[in-house]
Amino acid sequence: MFRWQQEIAGVEFDDVLDLNKYGDRVIGIGEFEKISSPFLMKGESEDWLPETLSEALLASDFFDGWEQQSQEQLFDLKERIESAEFHQETTVSMPWNEQSLPIDDAKLLLKSWQKKIETLESGSDKELGEPEKRAVLQIEQNIEHAAYIRQRREALLNAKEAEPVLPVLLKEHIHLREHQRQGLAWLQQLFLKSPEETSGCLLADDMGLGKTLQILAFIVWYIEKNPDGLPTMIVAPVSLLDNWERELDNFFHTANLEVLKLYGNAVKAVKFHKDEIPTELRAQGIKNLLRPGWVGRAKIVLTTYETLRDQEFSLARQKWSIMVCDEAQKIKNPAALITHAANAIQAQFKVACTGTPVENTLVDLWSLFDFAQPGLLGALNDFGEKYLKPIEGIPERNRAALESLRRIIETQTLRRTKEEVAKDLPKKIEELSCKQLTMIPLQRDLYISSIASYQNRQKMQDELEQSGAGMLGLLHRLKLICAHPYSVKPDNRLREHSPKLAWMMKRLDEIKAKSDDKVIIFSELRDIQRELQYAIHQRFGFKPYVINGDTSTTSSSVNSRQKLIDAFQQQPGFGIIILSTIAVGFGVNVQKANHVIHFTRCWNPAKEDQATDRAYRIGQTKDVYVYYPTIKDANMPTFEETLDALLQKRRSLARDMLCTKGDLAYEDFNQLLRS
Hints:
Structural class: alpha/beta
Helix content: 25-40%
CATH class of the largest domain: Alpha Beta
Number of helices: 24
CATH topology of the largest domain: Rossmann fold
Number of domains: 3
Largest sheet: 7 strands, parallel
Strand content: 5-15%
CATH superfamily of the largest domain: Tandem AAA-ATPase domain
Distance between the termini: 78 Å
């Protein structure tokens, strides 16, 4: 038996290097080739500003022990970042003093540091060192010119008017709404024309309209129609995969639907140990392979974007019928390894699924279609000249370019909003009274002194020549001072008299007294989350759940994200839950709550709207009240007042799916320094 297994493994290893085993977009095996384009450069509308910021950026001792020219420390940091990514950790400890930094900020530091060392060593032949070799599947890129095109029939009929075929396994009590029936029919009709006339689509329904049910009904219909057909694959952030499995069980009879969970510890059970992989493959940088027969009899494979990236040599040799990328913003960057791996997969039909197809620039949209229908929008550089520049380059926008782009993608894009199709939803009401909260004197002193010392505290900018980093730190500090000054200065007078906290506790008292409503409080800041939990415990006698990036996403965990949300929703009467806007602002359903307090604000209105829609979605039975408590001062514009105005402006300009919202840039806050 052992010899037979070795022979099978040998064939598997031989197949790895056989390009004929991959899809026709794969052209080689080698190191990842850096992708460059003027339209991938960071601009005003791109999210240079990290989603979560650590106070370490402000700490005076953050760089203690840091040797700026030490390549050993540089490579140690690089390895720690790679390890954190592999283990899906959210923070990285610095090698010089073990202070933690969010992983996005750590990457920013690494990139800036590498540039600094290159500058110091310019003119010499000294290399930064040999990084560990990593091979990837090299694919035809559509950056400078359209090298890989999946032809679409120009006369492709609009499939949105067809009648759906409901899967037999749909449970008897489950009824698709009219827009979901239309979505299912649209997916079915496009699939029936693949791969000859089309190769994929973009399902871009507004958040909370049941995209998951539409996709699952489509996949189950395919499996019923093709019982011996190729498997299907759903790729999603790890935090959402439990929900996909749960929805499948809720909506369908699943006794004959075999599902493979290919993520976390389950991957270890079906992968080769590194020592089992031949030396010649490891020498080329191929160190992750799944064992022969790893798919088994699975009809649906659930996996993460990170597993897709790490196991691309196995996943790309497997043929698939349908591949779905949920929260497809994860493949919006054409230069990212995850996007590269998704494009290497050979699937008959690819579905990009996201409620926010354009978060920052139209490059997001181009990248989604480079996945679903390669070549439809041409080469990235041509697309940038023809569409991105005229549409994004001027405030009034080029209507002709916008309408031309809309016509091209129309037949392969389905976008419905709540206003259009979910007219039976309760109201969403924004409470404006909380936008006039006045600073207390102690808070104002702390705020003004922070601005005054800004010019002398630009350590990151000065040492790394990183424009804007000092401002980034200041904005983070001002954000904390406005939200809850005690988090910056542990003075009990600030804890007891924080204006925003006082407003919130009063509002919570009112909600509890008048109803059995439930409340979501959003903040991405850990210190604020802790302070809110402390204050609520003191007032109401219970500690609300806090769900952030540290909360387990694994269903087997006692305190997994979904289990905590379920417990919150199932408890009778008044309740409060604290969620990270970034970590839990998408993909989860919390319809039992109908009050949403954004205690601190996002930099991007699209992400903020996503967070609100955790409660305002199909299944909500009560009116939803949304609060944006805002600190103001009679003598100066505050950070929160400025942020609120900027977000409102972005939101009003971005009703159109093709109009970018984008993160704010630090230049938007320059007026704060002139006060």
